[in-house]
Amino acid sequence: MRQVTRVSLRATLLAAGLGCAFLLSPVAEAASPAQSQYQRDVQHCNTTPGIDKKACLKEAGAAAQASRDNGLAAPGMQSETQNRTQRCNALTGTQRQDCMILMDNKNQVREQGSVQSGGILRETTITIPASGSGS
Question: Do 119 and 113 meet the contact criterion of CB atoms below 8 Å apart?
């Protein structure tokens, strides 16, 4: 019994030593940008109150996988323009025109929020002339 305990203790100490050696090795210090981003995303999931933690962790894992597969890229200007136009296409008439003003006129639009916080609120003032009929 004493011999078995000694072997188990040695195996435990060896495993702990190898773990510490890995943590201190240059390989562990040089984590890829994707791994670093994944760790930040997981920390965000674990520390942000009021979010669906399971869904957040699933998204963090999917983003990390896509990053490893070079599937994540910053959208180009053409892609952003198409996205803005598609958002407004579901509207009709003057609502569509007003939507395009919100998407395109950055100088006259006030923005609040962020994608990370759940959405962006855009606000502008559109003057509508009074109708010509008098009472």
Answer: yes
